[in-house]
Queue: 2 jobs
Job 1
Amino acid sequence: MGAMSLGPKHWAPWRIEEEASRTSLLKVAYDRGINTWDPVNVHSSSESERMIAKAIKKYHLPRHKLVFMTKCSGYVPEETTWRHMFYGKEMPVSKDYVNQGVLSRQAIFNAVNASLDRLETTYIDLLQIRRFDDETPIEETVEALHDLVKAGKVRYIGASIIWATQSAQLYMQNYYNTLYREEEREMNKFCNERGVGIVPCAPFQRGYVCRPPKKNGTMTRVTEEKSWRRADELIELAISIVHRVHEVAEKKRWKMSQMEEALGVIGKTLTKKEEEYLENLC
């Protein structure tokens, strides 16, 4: 379960911040067998990690039955009103954020210790480097990750959103869904050949493939993000793909979200003809 939606609404209006909502959501997930939670230290300026810790205490969830998959490399603002992506140039050169970002040894150690404090746990099940750091020698990054495993603060290591040529991990979280299938060219093949596990990032493309195109413009997140990001999901080809997903889902009497499951998760299956129909536009 991704934790990106957890956080204060002043960080983003589509965040889930109410005490009852944010904790009951995690409790419902746990009760239904979803015990792997995937935050990112920069999301909501780390509030998502704090919310997870609060839910565990409130509902007395056993830590040993949970899996935490947090990430590092981004700069975490001290103010929760800041959004890190808007200060990409200022934070790395600020005296207040020395060794607080990218993938140097010191920065990784600082990030992990901070996440452990926010999650109120003694270890992270899976630590992922979020994107590649071209300025830090890869040997330094990998040795730091290895030392954290040996120290018992991290159980396993992985990577998220990097190129296949940069990957030498045991786990990969790559950006992959019906609207973005570039990973099939290299990354997925590379991971399959090397025995590297894959967990898709943004499998529902921020919700765009879970509803008919005409309803996408009504989403709070879409409205907010129009002011600062390019909406690739609204180009003609993307809309045509979502139309086909909707069409096939209606024929099979599935939810549109179950179409994504059929493409990448065990439990739902598509016929060869249905797969070809969807792939003609992808």
Note: Residues 15 and 42 are 14 Å apart (CA to CA).
Job 2
Amino acid sequence: MAATVAAVSGAKRSLRAELKQRLRALSPEERLRQSRLVTQKVLAHSQYQTSQRISIFLSMQDEIETEDIIKDIFQRGKTCFIPRYQPRSRHMDMVKLASPEEIASLPKTCWNIPQPGQEEVREEALSTGGLDLIFVPGLGFDRHGHRLGRGGGYYDTYLRRCLQPPRGKPYTMALAFREQMCPQVPVDEHDVKVDEVLYADASAP
């Protein structure tokens, strides 16, 4: 058992390094092109259109750009929640965002991600009705919904919290560059699958 855990952990480390290298090789123009294609898929997706309470990550440089999706959430009158990570723990809450414009004024974490301060009182999604849809970031994905995160365990821990009664399970959707798709992602018992991975297909213009 210990050998299996060590093997999976080693495989994850190796794949993370490879994926980071792939992502560094993406030009800004290609990142923007694929982000636009994935955004179009999101906006046309029936699960997105019918969801009212949506959690979405504020993208880092090596992630699909989520700015236009966030703007659309507000334009459609949906409720938007964003992650608030607690440093030195695996705890994360999804807290309400007042407007897309607010993002620019939020303090930044050590990962340079904007998020509301820990002391600031905000509506927290799981305390006030749960979530219909969660957009999930990550470094790598496969077509079976397996996800390789950055090693912090924040999303796996949060997604398990979402499964606790009386809440209904939110639909989970990962957003990825084509370069983040893998034949198979190594997983262990703590990893939580996503329902769907949206990415720019090789055939896309």
Note: The first strand starts at residue 53 and ends at 55.
